[in-house]
């Protein structure tokens, strides 16, 4: 499947997360992104070094600035289960705006065409590192990394595009 790109409508599919009341929610991507400006940024794995020390903290640190530029939702996305994503999110007590969501089986990652084969590292099929800016479900910006790089998908890169 070809990777999602600028101009595409993001496919519908389901993701899971724990809400503010600590209840597990499984929702369609379209239900949380329709009629909104949303940043969906994907990482290869929770608790992994680049994701935990650079990618996620960048979006948490820039969340207020992103919101001031019209962003409604900031979503951190990974092929992990929702319990792992909940635990990972709790390691950022300063976070007020980034929602940690799970694609437990990688099905949504497949729909996006953004799979990354990390079987040789014992991680299985994961998500490539990316940052998408969605405007009413349409991809306005698609910053997709090659391999394990972290060069184009930061919060700063999205801010430059706004």
From TrEMBL:
Enzyme class of the recorded protein, top EC level: oxidoreductase
Coiled-coil regions, chain positions: none
A GO MF label: thioredoxin peroxidase activity
Start and end residues of each Thioredoxin domain: 4-162
Highest taxon, organism lineage: Eukaryota
InterPro entries referenced in this protein's UniProt entry, alphabetically: PRX5-like, Redoxin, Thioredoxin_domain
EC id: 1.11.1.25
GO cellular component: cytoplasm
Catalytic activity, reaction form: [glutaredoxin]-dithiol + a hydroperoxide = [glutaredoxin]-disulfide + an alcohol + H2O
Its biological purpose: Thiol-specific peroxidase that catalyzes the reduction of hydrogen peroxide and organic hydroperoxides to water and alcohols, respectively. Plays a role in cell protection against oxidative stress by detoxifying peroxides.
Family of this protein: Belongs to the peroxiredoxin family. Prx5 subfamily.
UniProt protein name: Glutaredoxin-dependent peroxiredoxin
